[in-house]
Amino acid sequence: MKNPVKKLFDESEPHFTGDGKYKKYEPVWDATKTFFFLPSPKNKFMPFVRDHLDLKRYMSFVILALLPVTLFGIFNTGYQSGLATGQSYSTLDCFLVGAWYVVPMIIVSYGVGFIWEFLFAIVRRHKISEGFLVTGLLFPLTLPPTIPLWQVALGISFGVVIGKEVFGGTGRNILNPALTARAFVFFSYPVTMSGDIWIAGKDFVDGVTGATALVITGYEGQAIGSALSEAGFSMGRLFFGLVPGSVGETSALFCLVGAAILMITRIGNYRIIIGGIAGVIITSLFIYMIPGGKESWANAGPLYHLFAGGFLFGISFMATDPVSAPGTNPARWIFGFLIGFLTVLIRVANPAFMEGAMLAILFMNVFAPLLDHMVIKYRSAKRIPNV
Which candidate, 65, 137, 132, 77, places its Cα nearest to that of 107? Predict the structure, then answer.
């Protein structure tokens, strides 16, 4: 017996394709169809190329890698709410309270973003790309859990329209759209995105402010490590993620799990991830050896720089975006290393903006084509000229 959903799409196809009267809305029809079924285009002429990985499967692997970070982010939102308000929440309560805040952010991000995707697809008459499936989830994970939903809608609108569609859509954007959206919200509404973030309060109404790890500093010669521990940001808590912060950035453990999934499936290039981690370790060690005040992040050491803030989240899920990252292997190593280098440099040199990972990735997105160009020119110069 034929699948009734498949039958419905087969019967409606003539109206949305060819000279059908609803041809203008073919992108919406096609996107709805591919939501239910895997795309199955067939070449009618040679050569015939078979590949197991299309864009939809590609994005599905990224969503899979993001699931551990997302689920933990929901749990941690509820957990931090209980700590901040003196409530004794069970594991289930932590998930329920966290979901009350995080799930609406994800829904708004996807809903508003897909509206823009539909509009541009209809006007330009091209198919809707599955690339937004990742952007729509990445963006809310970079935000504090109690950000107003209208700011989520405004941010994702900026990220989709200015960060991607003005360049021609998926595959043509220079900057990572999710990071572009976050940068817009950060600089437009700094109070919402500042180091003192809002932590969800009890009864889903009240809230309190809490400092993130990156705004902690020592005092009167106190070592930064001691100051972090006294503030509740021990190395263990930073690694597992039971600290205040944006939804998806707090757990270094689950960010590394996601990175491992991306590298094993070859969705995320390991050169960028390993190069970025090496950049943080080498740069922070070099700065650590320079005499200076013990209370500053210059003396934090590589592990604190890796586990605090959103570096591991950014290097795993955003820097590896194949569109805005370099395409040659040597350039990928340089790209990743410079992201790590700039992240530490911004944190140490600019106390007003401690989270350097976002700016570091966006800055290197701009220079990714130049890195590829330099690698290609170098390789071309090494070739033996034809005689």
Answer: 137
